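Recall that a protein's primary structure is simply its ordered list of amino acids. Everything else, from secondary elements to tertiary packing, is in principle encoded there. The following example makes that idea concrete.
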Amino acid sequence: MVMSQVSALESPPSKYDRLLARARKVSPAATLVVHPCDESSLRGALETAEEGIIVPILVGPADRIAAVAREHRLDISRFEIVDAAHSEAAAAKAVELVHEGKGELLMKGSLHTDELMRAVTSSGTGLRTARRISHVFVVDVPSHPEALFITDAAINIFPDLDAKRDIIQNAIDLFTMAGLGTPRVAILSAVETVTTKIPSTIEAAALCKMADRGQITGGLLDGPLAFDNAIDVEAAKIKGIKSQVAGRAQILVVPDLEAGNMLAKNLIFLTKADSAGLVLGARVPIILTSRADSVRSRMASCAAAVLHADARRRAVAIPAV
């Protein structure tokens, strides 16, 4: 008993613990939880609410939500329920409520991702902005000193240069709005030299020059970098790469969805990393969880989204000079 207490005291807080601690210090965000019709999605929303991070508004079939709550002994009595007949109707209603100013965040429940994103990206009624919509994984690898932001591994399949510019800017904005400072951004490829044989190396070089010209702001960019050169100081040193980013990257920008998805899932399953996930670039952040996510991962996703929402609130409240 004594030994376990000592171990717990000696264990440093995880990257997610620090994120959650920051989120508890800001006002909870009204969060439209779309179709929370299974235990994991409903429990994740309620437990995050208990932490004081979000105020959930449950959008979906009221009778099904109530039945899930009864079956799993979850108390939903103090939360608003907005009735919607089925998953697609719930997604459309949640988007409508964002337009009405009723919610600062969207949170995916037990519906399919494409159902939610169809409503978000609808040309007539959706939540598009001038910025490209993209996904960011926030991965807590136990053996790595910092959380890794990996983008885009879920939305954009083969992004072009303009899309990558927005993908990078979305990730930088999330990092800075979470209060983590100025991020070091590595644009990944298979090698660290620019070659016409690998198009992603040319795009990496172009993106770095775009940052030099102010087309991407708020982060320190370098690329192309191979994965080892991006996250390991010794690997970068052996290759003779000298930069502020190499070996110490915090945001990893992948060439395409396939590479990003494989990278993120390798870390999750082989290193037992936790992963949180957000979709950015829409009018509000979207908490995109899966049924396999732990409650801890869901909370971390909510925490990152709430910090993003709080930064936007403060930006609106402070008049421009």
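Residues 199 and 223 are 13 Å apart (CA to CA). The longest helix spans residues 295-317.
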